[in-house]
Design goal:
mainly beta, five-stranded antiparallel sheet, 1 helix, 45% strand, globular
Length: 196
Amino acid sequence: VSCVPVPGRSGYLHVSDDSFDPVQKRAKFFFNGANVEAVAEMFRTASEVTFSNEPDRVYFCRVIGGSTFDKSIFEFTEFEIVFECDPEKREREPSIISAANGMTLIHPGNRKCYPTFEITGSGTIVLTVGAQAVTLAGVSGTTIIDGDLGECYTSAGVNINDKMTGLPPILMPGVPTVISWTGSATVVIRPNWRYV
């Protein structure tokens, strides 16, 4: 948030870019075992974490000091780890929706999300999500529109951004959004719901 002075107005105008800073979360662990190196490696390479007070949510994270762990912390049965987490959490078990042409989807989270669409069909397919349209031209088999990456690729991982016109659609929280498409295709949606 930036504070901008406005002539003739008391106080400031607060301008937000609608983003959040990473958050640090602390967790206590209890260790009673022999394989200290395996436990240290697990924390060193951690990329996701779920906390006991939010068992159905996952944060993308990294461990603060994770590359230079002092293994002596494991000599004690109780120790604390600090996770630097993305501010937006997601479902621990991501939703997978087999879409029906013309269905309405309502994002239950409170942050915009970048869904992944798995479209199986061939030829030219126009996917419409609310007012957002994406055209796939000359595709065959399964095409993936990955909203998180902003990429389009085949099920084998081959980049086919040149066959996509338009940007990967975004779902806004609480907004009923109609999902439809032209062409003979099936569509599976991984909405990647997000929450703060």
